[in-house]
Design brief:
By secondary structure, the protein is α+β, with helices and mostly antiparallel strands. Helices cover about 45% and strands about 20% of the residues. A five-stranded mixed barrel has the order 1-2-3-5-4. The termini are far apart. About 25% of the residues are buried.
Length: about 200
């Protein structure tokens, strides 16, 4: 059974990368292929999915993750009836701490605004995984992350900006005001965009 692999990125496509290990090339499904640079050596945690197609032929696909916790989440998602590996990989595009917190809070609406998650999938995820993530190091947060995500998206911010903001603001403080978090997020996104603009100008 494959656990992980260290190799070189040979090519990057829309949904996959070609990964070389010991002179063998592997096509691997990745949630964020653009994060990979050709000719760079990387470590990937792997999962081999085997299934039969409509012609009853056995097919194999590899799925790769830079962090083990994303592989763990992926395995939990594909174990849910009605959620396949492609959808699970798309869901893993989101920040894992935000996903876990929304699941703990049973926030179906908050989950359904994230990348790759429809209301149907959000309900399945909450029903099947809320007990798995009941406890954890982020459980002390009283913030309804879903409302923050919805507020930022309603202001026109892209998924990438929202995800970046959520990683950099403190969501763990008790009784924190949602409007303060929105303000902090907007300031961070604006600053990040200014920094990108400076880099491009140089």
């Amino acid at each position: 059974m494959l656990s992980y692999m260290v190799g070189k990125v040979i090519s990057v496509n829309k949904k996959t990368i070609t990964f070389e290990n010991n002179y063998v090339g592997y096509v691997i499904n990745i949630s964020k292929p653009n994060a990979f640079e050709v000719n760079k050596v990387r470590k990937l945690y792997l999962y081999k999915h085997m299934a039969t197609n409509n012609k009853n032929n056995l097919t194999e696909e590899l799925y790769g993750f830079e962090q083990y916790e994303y592989k763990e989440l992926f395995l939990l998602l594909i174990a849910i009836s009605g959620i396949g590996p492609k959808t699970s990989l798309s869901i893993c595009n989101n920040d894992i701490s935000v996903l876990k917190q929304l699941i703990r809070q049973r926030d179906v609406q908050g989950l359904s605004v994230l990348n790759g998650i429809t209301p149907k999938y959000a309900r399945l995820i909450v029903d099947n995984l809320c007990d798995v993530f009941t406890t954890g190091d982020n459980d002390q947060s009283n913030v309804e992350v879903g409302k923050l995500v919805q507020a930022l998206k309603s202001l026109g911010y892209a998924n990438q900006d929202v995800e970046s903001a959520l990683k950099h603001i403190d969501l763990s403080k008790p009784n924190v005001d949602l409007s303060d978090l929105i303000s902090q997020s907007i300031k961070f996104i604006a600053q990040e965009q200014d920094d990108v603009g400076i880099v491009k100008a140089n």
